[in-house]
Amino acid sequence: EIVLTQSPATLSLSPGERATLSCRASQSVSAYLAWYQQKPGQAPRLLIYDASNRAPGIPARFSGSGSGTDFTLTIRSLEPEDFAVYYCQQRSNWPPGLTFGGGTKVEIK
Amino acid sequence: QVQLVESGGGLVKPGGSLRLPCAASGFTFSDYYMNWVRQAPGKGLEWIAYISGSGHTIYYADSVKGRFTISRDNAKDLLYLQMNSLRAQDTAVYFCARGVRSGWYFDYWGQGTLVAVSS
To answer: What is the pLDDT of residue B87?
Structure first.
């Protein structure tokens, strides 16, 4: 099973600052990686798929990059509504399945 | 608009069974892969099951294989998760989610239903 390790566990930033979240895979996942945002009491929301493609309706301040084993989610300038937990997710062809990272909490400093 | 609504959660004893339906609306249900994802209290996300639009292709996470069954009724726009031999570690909020890009990314999610396994 491919393990995704997210860092840091918690990121303390102020509105307007840039957030850089990391996701590292235990083996190559090519570009089969997504990012989700989850707020307390809500379902996750898809932000990025295939490493760098923004999902419909996602603001341009969110961007994803990387391939192979190292991936980054960047939030260019944090808005108040961006403080949440972010998860990366990979899909594997064999065995078929997917795993999520442990999450990074972006909190207000 | 796309809506997914789970129901059927509740308190069940270890070893018991529960069936979770997920009602879909706002899209052509049979055209989409569907998945179940769960989240234990205060923990991260765990994918547990995947089903193709026709229902012919199904995959499970190892943690539930042999105990849980995913199925769908395309005539009724319903997705199901049959959970048997429940354990305390199955306690979680269960989400149904619509899959895109061969079903492995989740663009719409339900609000979740809580399953608590305790004696």
So the answer is: 98
